[in-house]
Amino acid sequence: TRNFTVLAFESSADDTCAAVVTSSREILSNVVIKQHDLHEGYGGIHPMIAIEAHQRNLPIAVKRALKEANVSVAKDIDGIAFTRGPGIGGCLSVGSNAAKTLAAALDLPIVGVHHMQAHALTPLLTSWPNPPKFPFLTLLVSGGHTLLLLATSLTSFRILATTPDESIGRSFDKVSRMLGLKWTAFGPGAALEQFAGQQWDADLPDIGNFPRPLRGKLGFSYASLHSFVERCIAAKQGIQNIDEGFKLALARGFQTAAVAHLEEKLLLAFEWCAQNKIHVQDVVVSGGVASNSYLRERLAECLKTVDTTVPISLSFPPPSLCTDNAVMIAWASMHRFLARDHDEYTIGLRPKWSI
Ligand code: KG4
Ligand code: ZN
């Protein structure tokens, strides 16, 4: 097949992204302009602020993506992909309008991509030449998502577990802030991991047992875990009255419980697959929280207990391609471009879009 070059935009939440990727798996550029500092203090993404930031940043991101890739949009780009959903409607519209207008002006085909499918298909790009084989399980653990997906083909996915309340990443962030941990460029979650992993020779105080939400069920719930920490702190009348050993017990207890929750659900997913005669050999774990080394160790251990004929292979795509990015959007559009299965310029957005 011919080499096809895609320019892709992603603007479904708070990152403005543009990238250039080819069908021979070359990532020519990957530009991400973050805006989390703008949303600090709103307890989430503020839609109007996010829309304005996308409007300001998208032209800059596109210009940089083309320059870094050293391509001319008129000569070298064969198609334009964008995130069609799910996401914040106003945010999605910034990327999709830009994509459609540019495509119309240049007479190029467009493909609108499902954001979650793009996350799920990333390992087919990043684990080349040994990509996971369908059907595979992917666990997406980030600030935005806590999701366990079964991918059975390039176009068919099934959500096995998701969360109705807080994501695992935000839960780590909240506990880290409650404990008053100082954090660096890697963020509050990474600070919690570092604090919990410190050397400590004395005994730790007993803080009681963390809850085990949705026990035996395929679903995630993190709110009760950080609420438990909140109650422990409140019982001592505030973090200022808590000594280092107690803080450490809370941090370790939380990290252990948060990861145990993932282990339990992953094993349940394997049971579900076995009952449905689906033979899974590959597990992919992605998202910001997947950089946690305790999590990596625990998941590797837990997969050893699964009853299979061949050992399960566990992989972690590089963090830069696990967080929101336009490379995954370009990659997820590629099989459609190659099959000439394009969308119309009139295609609408899907802010809510099941997988
Ligand atoms: O995928 P990601 O970078 O972007 C969003 O979805 O926002 O995920 C960020 C999340 C944050 O909540 C961050 O605290 C968490 O991932 N995180 C971690 C670690 N590194 C990042 N959580 C636990 N342990 C880590 N080492
Ligand atoms: Zn995402």
User: Which small-molecule ligands are present, each listed once?
Assistant: 5'-O-[(R)-(carboxyoxy)(hydroxy)phosphoryl]adenosine, zinc ion
DSSP strand content: 15-25%
Assign the CATH architecture of the largest domain. 2-Layer Sandwich
From the spread of the alpha carbons, the general shape counts as globular
Number of strands: 10
- Major beta sheet, strand line-up: 3-2-1-4-5
Number of helices: 11
CATH superfamily of the largest domain: ATPase, nucleotide binding domain
N-to-C series of helices and strands: EEEHHHEHEHEEEHHHHEHEH
What is the total number of structural domains?
2
The value of Rg in angstroms is 21 Å
Give the low-pLDDT segments. Answer: none
**What percent of the residues sit in helical stretches (DSSP H or I)?**
40-55%
CATH topology heading of the largest domain: Nucleotidyltransferase, domain 5
User: What's the rounded overall pLDDT mean?
Assistant: 94
Category from helices, strands and their pairing: alpha/beta
Instruction: State the major sheet.
Output: 5 strands, mixed
End-to-end separation in angstroms reads: 29 Å
Under the CATH scheme, which class of the largest domain? Alpha Beta
GO molecular function: metal ion binding; tRNA N(6)-L-threonylcarbamoyladenine synthase activity
Protein name: N(6)-L-threonylcarbamoyladenine synthase
Subcellular location: Mitochondrion
Subunit structure: Homodimer.
